[in-house]
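REVIEWER CHECKLIST
Item 1: Sequence provided? yes
Item 2: Single chain? yes
Item 3: Sequence as submitted:
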Amino acid sequence: MNSKKILYFAFLLFIISCKSEKEKFAAQPISPEVIVENAVNQFEKSILKDKIDSVFSKYHFNGSVAVLKGENMLYQKSEGFQNFKDKAKLDSNSVFAIASISKQFTAVLILLQEDQVQLNTEDKVSKYLKGFEKNGFENISIKNLLNHTSGISDSGNGLLSKPGEKFHYSNKGYRLLGEIIEKVSGKSYDENALELFKKVGMTNSSTANLSQGNHLAGAFLGNSKKFQEIVNMPKRLANKEISVPAGGILTTVSDLHLWNTKLYGGQILKPETLKKMTEKSADRNHPVFGKMEYGFGIMINTAPRSYFHSGYVKGAPSLNIYYPETKTSVIILSNIANEAIGKNAIFNPHKEIKKITDSAQNKVVELRTEMLKPLSSL
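Item 4: Structure as written out by the authors:
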């Protein structure tokens, strides 16, 4: 759809909204900004429904997708099975393993300790953990762990590069951050995480260690006709190879939206601390999503600006996106993956939906600007 057609459609929605609002509120003045926002939201809903529905159909996508702006649900769909063995269906309350999306929770727990003056992200790790006193490890800072520039290898005991020099994605680095959180707080990582969930209002979230299995979307390999269950879920996420701080949080689409809204809305961290988290401190070349900036536990795109992170443990590909300019969350969670087609292809639905929502964000910003221009002179 070209820009003229977009603007024409949005204008029609604008007129309809004006009429309906006037009928509803008669003598009450109506903010032009509110009417424009309503019109833009209706337009965005129509785009998202057609395009994301087509992704579900194209890939026979088994999972939950939600696009939310504040309390306004722009798109939501859950399709397929929570458990392929008993055919229990997915719904909006299904709890998914979010894998590496968990890292942003660990980053926030570290930054909360900084807000409470229990540590500084510029501190050396050796101040808190043993075994970091020599062989280059003494130069690793907490910041290096947060943005994956520590040089720590997940598979060996040495350093892949000097601290601060290169980006090397490291689950081990986030496991170490979890140990630092426990050291300075005097409480387990699980206790810290549950306190954070409670603070945010994430009532359907837990860690792998504390999960009761309620509404759990178990992880599977293959497809709906020929599948293999990943056993010992979610407990296996607490194993040393993954670890809870790096990939062991379980949650729902609604809880993740609540998290996005409160985190980026400044209700969890101090403004200066949130800024540190969301500004570029490293560059990453992601094997699926390409080149991007990296903050603390989050990836950053600039056009349109978004904070996001993918996650993958066997059978559970996920993606969480937040667009700060429009305060919109896009959450894509699944519980089955056909590894035979390759990891990049596993994320094809996620990549296509991200492309759709990136484009929608650009159009929404353009529409809002164009529609508000004539109203600014009234």
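Item 5: Key structural point noted by reviewer: Residues 316 and 335 are 4 Å apart (CA to CA).
Item 6: Recommendation: ____
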